[in-house]
Structure formats: C-alpha cells, structure tokens
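Reopening this ticket.

The earlier resolution said the output was attached, but the attachment link was broken on my side. Pasting everything inline this time so it's all in one place.
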Amino acid sequence: MTKRIHFNFSVFILSISLFLLVFLLPNQTPNKSVNLFVPDIEESVLDRAENSQARRDHFFRLTRNPVTNSIPDNIRTLELAYAKSLENSFNYKSNTLQEEIEIIEAGPNDVGGRTRGLGVDSRNSNIILAGGASGGMWKTTDGGQNWVQTSDLGQNLGVTSLVQDPTNLDTWYYATGEFSGGSSRARGGGGTLYGSGLFISTDNGDNWAQIQATADEDVSFNSEFDFISRV
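Inline output:
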C-alpha cells in the first residue's frame, strides 16, 4: 500500500513538472526582437545575368516600335543614314571657330585593343590583317610598322573571326557578333555585341562588303548570323 502511494505521488510530481515546462516557461521568455547582422555579399553571377537581361529589356523598350512591339529589321541602316544626313545638313559656317585649332595625335599609336581576328597573307608575311573586337578591320603591308583601317565605320566593327580563302588568296572573310565577353561587361553592361553576318574582301583586305545573304541589322537575337564565333 505504501509503495502504491509513493508511486502515485511520483507520477503527480512528474505531471506538475511537465505542466510547468510546457505552459509556464515559454511565457517567461521576454519578447524581444533579434537584430541579425547580415554581411554584404558580392553580387552573384546569377544576379549579374539577371541585371544584364534587365538592361537588354530596357533597351528593347526604348527602341521598339510600339505598334508592332518589335525593333525594325533595318534600324541600324536607318540610324547610319540619319547620322550622315545630320553631317551634310550641318551649317559649318555659322559654327566656325574664330581661330583654327590644329590637333596632333599624342599617341601611342602602336597599341591595339582586344583582337579576335588575325591573318597573315600566305604569299607575303609582311601583309597582315587584324580584326578588333570593337575596332573593325586593319591592314599592314610592312610587317606591322604601320596600320590602316580598311573597314568602313558604317559597317559592323565587332570582328570575331578572320580567314583567307585558300582557293583565292585575294579573298578574305570576317565574322561579326559576340554573345558575351565584350568590353562593355567590365563597365556594367551585358557584354553582348550583335553581329551583322559575314563580310568579304576580294582585293586582299583593302575593302570590305557585307554578304547580303547573312545581313542582319537589328539589335535582337533572331538570326543564326547574330553571333558568329568562327569561320
């Protein structure tokens, strides 16, 4: 009988203890907000990619035709034509400076930018063609001592690849369009430079013309000739 009383008393004490733990102690905990310190974390690659896409979307909204919700296919051609018309219509006489200003290049002029296209004429090693990632085509006939730009400023200057035709050595091709890695990425841009297809030279790199079958003058990815990495 005594053992049973002791057992019941022990169960009673245990029940009281559990009640205190479950119902009373949580109410005794002060209700204080906890301020967590979150260190600055470098922007992830995904965040940068999303920001790059947002910039492209913003540019699209600025340049699109609101009626068709698309960028005209010949927008680049129209842009260049408009720029030339401004130059022709500008009244230089009314804006002539009182004194002529002579400008002399300070240099250095023997330092190139990022070059993705480079070719040496198989008949003459002193003739070298070079294509800049954003500077167009250049040519030297004296082994690199002097360079002349051979591509027109109105053409796409984003050269990505260059090749000499082995069956006709006066013929060269250069490709355009770089999906990522462009210099604008280092300044917060997306690094994308839309191409305009392939260009051809039939006079050993002195002049260039766009191959019309590959022409793509808009600034949206809708053609297999927007980005060409190798020819």
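Reporter confirms the inline version is readable. The chain has three helices and eight strands. Residues 115-214 form one domain.
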